[in-house]
Amino acid sequence: MGLQDSIAQMPDRPAPRKPIYRQLYFQVLSAIFLGAIVGHAFPEFGAALKPLGDGFIKLVKMIIAPVIFLTVATGIAGMRDINSVGSVAGKAFVYFLFFSTLALFIGLAVANIVRPGEGLGIDPASLDAGAVTSYTQSAEEQSITGFLLNIIPETLFSAMTEGKILQVLLVAILAGVAIAMTRPHSDLVLDVLGSLSEIIFKLVHMLMKLAPIGAFGAIAFTIGEFGIGSLANLATLIAAFYLTSLLFVLVVLGLVGYFAGFSIFSLIRYLREELLLVLGTSSSEAALPSLMEKMEIAGCRKTVVGLVVPTGYSFNLDGTNIYMTLAALFIAQAVGVELSWSEQLALVFVAMISSKGAAGVTGAGFVILAATLSVVPSVPVAGMALILGIDRFMSECRALTNFIGNSVATIVVARWEGALDRTRLAAAMAGNPLPLPEEDIERHERTGPHSEALAAKVAVQDA
Predict the structure, then answer these.
(1) Number of separate domains in the chain
(2) CATH code (residue 372)
(3) Is residue 286 part of a domain?
């Protein structure tokens, strides 16, 4: 039985929805709530649950490299026009540059209006510089040249074993182009990669069932280790950052979505499971494989998804950029340093560059902040110690904003490229996603006898 027959036999109406207690978003939300209670009531026990969150993130990171490679390589290999790869990449970078820079200026504006650090009167000599040494050292090691060279892996296979997203993306693009240029001789290779893709995405679905456990452990650790009370000391900065990020998502990205033909609220609802997972683990990488699959189901062409999403994770950091300029001015205000407009613009310029150079670095938000502060000698880098204790709470908002920003970018770039199926987008936003587009069905049927397995992947996804 072919894939066309499989889809033809699908019922016209969607299958009955699962009971709410069996839906992943409800399980993750409940886990976050329980984790917060455990972390607050039993701080030591909650802090000891950190391995649950770390273990889940490691499981997901384990499959990120094959997901990106298989999605990009098979997508490009099945394209009729290889030149469109450059077009997608160019439009994506224009989008990333504009909105990442806009996020930096928004954070700068909010810091000047709200002035969250004003009046604290912190003596720079009283700050513990040793607490942020590891971050400042990492910042010193970063450079644009080093970043660009680091995109090239040592070997063809080391990109997969080391799990560096941009290296994997480079190898996948080259492999996809090579396969496309050697067809039909490479049809067997494409067939094998298509089969592997089905297996990997099945593995993704299996691992996502562990998401509540990971979210529970991560939240319990955060509350147990730092305590809810630590939020009160820097409440103004936290509130300013969360409110600014919320307005950026609802107003700025909301307007982008409006002109692109979708509602930001519908997109958030469509990605609610992934957003709760990001909230629970404070890591947008935890939901990367699922995001790529959902963007394809929502009508974005596979090649666009494969190029925009992984690249956006390094170049489109809206939440991180808002945090950087806001936190930098908070530190300056807290130690009584008044920055001139030229110094503030210098901060923006350095942040725009360092946010790319620190991609993939552990604690990237703090590393970028250290590099940004280094351009203004009057602001002590040791001032980062003021916000070190709340950085974990801030990272959740950064990750959520980055995640939503990359989701919007994928749809917008797909629309610019003429690679967006608006019917499928509307269906997904309405909560009734459709199967993969006809061109993907035909491509897979041409490249192998795996129609039945593919039908399982392209079936309507039940939230």
Answers:
(1) 1
(2) 1.10.3860.10
(3) yes
User: CB-hemisphere CA count at 13 Å for 368?
Assistant: 33
Which pLDDT does position 366 carry in this prediction? 64
pLDDT in tens, 208-221: 788 788 888 877 88
Question: What are the pLDDT digits (tens) for 170-197?
Answer: 888 888 888 878 877 777 887 888 788 7
Q: Classify residue 133: in a domain, yes or no.
A: yes
Does 61 fall in a domain?
A: yes
463 lies in a domain?
no
Q: Which long-range contacts (CB under 8 A, 24 or more apart) does 33-37 make?
A: 34/216, 35/215, 35/216, 35/217, 35/218, 35/219, 35/220, 35/223, 35/280, 36/219, 36/220, 36/223
Domain that holds residue 162: 3-458
DSSP letter, residue 63? H
**Residue 411, CA distances (Å) to 86, 110, 123, 131, 162 in order:** 17, 28, 47, 41, 29
Instruction: Check residues 369 and 79 and name the one with the higher pLDDT.
Output: 369
Q: Is cis: bond before 16, omega within 30 of 0?
A: no
Q: What is the number of residues in the chain?
A: 463
